[in-house]
Amino acid sequence: MTTEKEQRLRDKLLPEIEEFKRARSTLQLATQDASGIPNASYAPFALADDGFYILVSELARHGTNLKASNILSVMLVEDENESKSVFARKRLTFDATAELVERESETFIKGVAALSGRFGEMIDNLASLTDFNLFKLNPHQGLYVKGFGQAFSLSGAELLDVDWKRDGHHGTPKAELADTAIS
């Protein structure tokens, strides 16, 4: 049961987080290859009602990594020139699993349409290339940082449960995350 204070926090932060997501065009990806070697990269994204969609080439390292391991971390971050301090840029991070979307499926059509609506006809051209794959990123838990001492964990269905993190930015142990991964 949600307390009145928790509901006020949720009512204030969730619209702010949604606006923050809408204002970003790309997300940072932390992927790993089959041997566990990490790679940091980025991809343009579109947000639909069922998750984040990215269209990436399997010729790119992160495209190959997402096919080898579906566990990743994602970050949306405020531009440096918009931030009051580079030490406390607003950011939204979340642990996720990547789901390779089959071509010609309803989900593929939906994801490509979301990306095309955001980025134009270039998406349609890329989606027609056989080395480009559509992935749906499914967030499991998140952290929204507004600034110093203002970190909020996000959990639950669609990351709608908000909790003020007063004990630092601690993540989920790898073993727990692996239990939530999609095979």
CATH class: Mainly Beta
Total count of helical runs of at least 4 residues: 5
Low-confidence stretches: 172-183
Give, in order, the helices and strands.
HEEEEHEEHHEEEH
- Percent of residues in helices: 25-40%
Strand content: 35-45%
What is the CATH topology?
Pnp Oxidase, Chain A
Going by CATH, what is the homologous superfamily? Answer: Electron Transport, Fmn-binding Protein, Chain A
Rounded to the nearest angstrom, the radius of gyration is: 17 Å
Number of domains: 1
Task: State the total count of DSSP E strands.
Answer: 9
Q: How far is the N terminus from the C terminus?
A: 33 Å
CATH architecture: Roll
Mean pLDDT: 86
Helix and strand composition category = alpha+beta
Give the helix/strand layout.
Layout: H1 4-23, E1 26-32, E2 38-44, E3 46-48, E4 51-57, H2 61-68, E5 71-77, E6 91-100, H3 106-119, H4 121-128, E7 132-147, E8 150-155, E9 161-164, H5 174-180
Antiparallel strand pairs: 1-2, 1-5, 3-4, 4-7, 5-6, 6-7, 7-8, 8-9
Question: Keywords, please?
Answer:
alpha+beta, 5 helices, Split_barrel_FMN-bd, Pyridox_Oxase_N, Pyridoxamine 5'-phosphate oxidase-like protein, coenzyme F420 binding, F420H2_bilvrd_red/Heme_oxyg
